[in-house]
Design brief:
Layout lengths: L7 H22 L4 H4 L9 H19 L5 H25 L13 H5 L10 H17 L4 H27 L2 H4 L9 H15 L8 H4 L4 H30 L4 H78 L4 E6 L4 E4 L1 H7 L3 H5 L12 H13 L5 E8 L5 E12 L5 E10 L1 H51 L4 H27 L17
């Protein structure tokens, strides 16, 4: 259910209803008749009617301000109570019985003294207005649209009944405010019903007759103007009629003639005013149309100028796009546009040849679908760095799994393309096949390992054989020293010859061991040493 907006006029009307209701109740209790009739010799507001206005004012305030959390229940109770007061009074009049409710709270001594029928009973039209207002307030609490529509028309009917009663008072027509013998609607009763019904109907201005007077369209404005002018005319002529009747300025026939002439003059004044107002509206519309036409012409001129600029920019863009497409498709290296989530957006033929997939197959896959599992983290880390720093250009070497299952090594350069606000849109990637270089690097690593192994073997062998050579050399040095002391000692020469042969044998053994270990074969000719006689 739509919560109606708070309307200041409803609050004011509710407060006035409470004040007048309490004043009338007090006047009945203390026999102060001024507030009962307001205008002497006219019908008075009954006690039950005043009590009904107190309830109605309370209901409007509770509904408007939600004074308590039980306001929904309280408003329903007050609406039912108002309907009950009106229904009891109306049923008593229709079916001609007396329940004693009319003088339940206080005795209507004035009516009893004048021997008027049904003392203390409110008029039929007053009771009907209370019933309609109570039903309307209950209907507005409903969730159904049809209930709101019916309730709004109930309020419009109360407005019509009270307006007719007021016109009857103004023009001295008792038929308008008095229903047969059942009493008359008091003046202040009519005024309260009139304003309560109008202000309450503003809660739903889109429904009923109220929608004719709300809104800002020309028809709504004209309706408001005519309506208030009509009310002004009715009130003014009604007052003139009362004054002329009081001072007997005109006879009945003359009064009718004066009234007709006055209505014609006022009607002509209204027509003159409305024609001038509508002509002013029409002139404003023509001015607005001219301004709109000028604005449209200026806008069309600007649109044409911008269209020419746009076409030039579009031609340049198409030219640059064509150049980019040619460079992209015929590039010697692989190129691709990749989304921020890693999906292929556009690939060239060279990249397709590298991985063995066709273009439509790659476009249906993501970047990681063909990446070797061991290298997937490399791309994610690099993409995160690039997104943090838009000017960063990353490069990695990773393995891709081709369509036939083979592995290729590819060097990938990645950069971002940004929008006008500087935010990343997609990646631009370049791909270069480095499989052969990776194989050469692997071969070099293997050869380096073999060389290191041979150098180690030679070092081990040199250390071992150096020990074997040092032994005969040491012996030779000692024998040489002995020979220097005794040059004629032939036995020392024999020893020297034996040590030389042993050293020769060691050197030949070293050469053979080097040859066995893979080092280039060293051909050593065994020397023969002559024995010394």
């Amino acid at each position: 259910m739509r919560t109606p907006p708070k309307i200041k006029s409803i609050t004011i009307t509710a407060v006035i209803s409470l004040i007048i209701g309490f004043l009338v109740i007090i006047s009945w209790i203390f026999h102060f008749p001024f507030f009962e009739t307001i205008i002497p010799k006219y019908a008075s507001m009954k006690f039950n009617t005043a009590f009904g206005f107190v309830l109605l004012g309370s209901l409007l305030l509770i509904t408007e301000f939600k004074i308590t959390k039980y306001c929904y229940v309280i408003s329903g109770f007050l609406s039912a109570l108002i309907i009950g007061i009106g229904s009891i009074s109306l049923l008593q009049t229709i079916f001609n019985f007396n329940t004693g409710f009319d003088q339940l709270f206080i005795n209507d001594i004035t009516s009893l003294n004048k021997h008027l029928p049904y003392p203390g009973r409110m008029a039929v039209n007053t009771a009907g207005c209370f019933i309609l207002l109570g039903l309307a307030m209950l209907g507005f609490r409903s969730y159904f649209r049809i209930a709101h529509i019916i309730s709004q028309y109930f309020l419009n009917l109360v407005t019509a009944i009270s307006a007719i009663a007021l016109i009857g008072y103004l023009y001295g027509l008792p038929l308008f405010y008095k229903v047969s013998y059942a009493g008359s609607m008091a003046v202040h009763t009519s005024v309260l019903f009139f304003f309560i019904s109008i202000t309450t109907s503003l809660q739903h201005p889109e429904i009923g007759i109220t929608k004719l007077f709300t809104g800002e369209r020309v028809g709504n404005i004209m309706a408001r103007r005519l309506f208030f002018m009509a009310i002004f005319i009715i009130v003014v002529f009604g007052a003139l009629r009362v004054e002329s009747q009081e001072f007997r300025m005109f006879s009945f026939t003359e009064g009718i003639a004066v009234l007709v002439i006055s209505f014609l003059c006022i009607g002509l004044a209204i027509v003159w005013h409305m024609v001038n107002w509508l002509n002013g509206v029409d002139e404003s519309r023509h001015k607005a149309e001219k301004e709109v036409t000028l604005i449209n012409e200026e806008r069309e001129k600007r649109v044409k100028e911008r269209s020419v600029k746009l076409m030039n920019l579009l031609a340049k863009f198409r030219e640059s796009e064509s150049k980019f497409k040619i460079a992209f498709e015929h590039s010697a290296i692989g190129m691709a546009l990749v989304s921020l989530k890693g999906r292929w957006l556009q690939v060239n033929k060279r990249l397709c040849d590298m991985v063995g997939y066709k273009e439509h197959e790659l476009l249906s896959m993501s970047f990681l679908d063909i990446t070797h599992p061991d290298d997937s983290l490399l791309y994610r880390d690099l993409a995160a760095k690039i997104l943090k720093n838009e000017n960063y250009i990353g490069r990695i070497e990773k393995r891709y799994i081709c369509k036939d299952g083979s592995i290729v090594w590819i060097s990938v350069n990645i950069a971002t393309v940004t929008n006008k606000k500087g935010g990343p849109v997609y990646f631009v990637s370049q791909f270069e096949d480095v499989t052969e270089r990776k194989k050469a690097e692997a071969s070099l690593k293997t050869a380096y390992k073999e060389i290191k192994k041979h150098v180690k073997n030679i070092q081990d062998m040199a250390w071992k054989q150096s020990h074997l050579i040092r032994s005969p050399l040491a012996n030779l040095k000692g024998l040489t020293d002995l020979l220097n002391n005794d040059p004629a000692n032939s036995q020392i020469l024999q020893y020297i010859q034996a040590e030389l042969e042993r050293m020769d044998t060691v050197i030949i053994g070293m050469a053979e061991e080097v040859s066995v270990r893979g080092v280039k074969q060293i051909v050593v000719k065994k020397r023969s040493f002559k024995k010394v006689a």
